[in-house]
Design a protein that fits this description.
Strand content: 15-25%
Number of strands: 9
Order of helices and strands: HEEEEEHHEHEHEEHH
Shape: elongated
Distance between the termini: 80 Å
């Protein structure tokens, strides 16, 4: 009886895995195209991203593949259509990128530079957020499966030094892109670039202070003239100068955040 119940569960798991795999293959094409479109707005107009879905070769950390006190499950029983069945289904998903025209798409984690990885991450998050919003707002009667109404765009998105390896006009494009995300959800961005920090609605500086006994890190909100001074310092890497102060004011003006006291 236990074996029959096990076989029934495995059959249902296989059915669900096939359904999930079919949806993944369809979504992969759309998702890759969406990321490519986002990258074109971040200074990588020739880049092409593919989301590759291939059969899993092992079940990984699937609970079904682990030893347990019940009836043993043979490795063959944990395979569906020549793919290993694991807790995430029967697929292996990998992101491929061709940064320039004529290049063969290869794994993103292997060939992308620091700047390309930063932009790819931002493009991915923007594409994910847009997709979740569309799913949320889609009429329930149009091809949505049961439970699809629970889909929500992420309430908070964190960008930790997404500016690695970039600068100049590309940094400004990334700043604008992150600002566009903040129109729909909370964004926390950690950056060393003034051209990105200028787009924030609230700006906090992190400072280390040594009181003679220990070193503490403090989070300080900067506003008005203080914010201009902090952006100027970020531009020079040291104390603000007249030129960096003027540049900081221009950054804030372009971002629509120029403090009244600095006008």
């Amino acid at each position: 009886m236990l074996a029959a119940h096990r076989d029934e569960l495995l059959a249902q798991a296989g059915k669900n895995a096939r359904r999930l795999s079919k949806r993944r293959h369809k979504a992969a094409r759309q998702f890759g195209a969406a990321i490519s479109r986002e990258l074109s707005e971040l200074g990588m107009g020739k880049a092409r991203v593919l989301v590759e879905v291939t059969p899993a070769t092992s079940g990984g950390s699937s609970p079904a593949a682990q030893p347990h006190s019940g009836a043993a499950v043979s490795p063959a029983a944990l395979r569906v259509d020549d793919a290993a069945l694991g807790r995430d289904g029967i697929d292996r998903v990998q992101f491929l990128i061709a940064p320039n025209r004529g290049m063969v798409p290869r794994p993103l984690k292997r060939i992308a530079s620091g700047g390309e990885l930063s932009r790819a991450l931002l493009a991915l998050k923007r594409a994910l957020g847009a997709g979740a919003e569309r799913e949320l707002n889609a009429p329930s009667s149009v091809g949505r499966s049961k439970g699809a109404g629970t889909v929500r765009a992420a309430g908070v998105q964190v960008f930790d030094e997404v500016d690695a390896g970039i600068g100049g006009s590309t940094a400004d494009k990334i700043g604008r892109a992150i600002a566009s995300i903040s129109a729909h959800r909370q964004v926390l961005c950690i950056t060393h670039l003034a051209s990105i920090a200028a787009y924030g609605e609230a700006h906090f500086a992190i400072e280390k202070r040594d009181d003679g006994r220990c070193v503490r890190s403090e989070l300080i909100r900067v506003e008005g003239p203080q914010r201009v001074a902090e952006l100027a310092r970020m531009l020079t890497g040291d104390s603000a100068t007249a030129a960096s102060t003027q540049a900081a004011e221009e950054l804030l003006s372009n971002a629509g955040e120029l403090p009244a006291a600095a006008e």
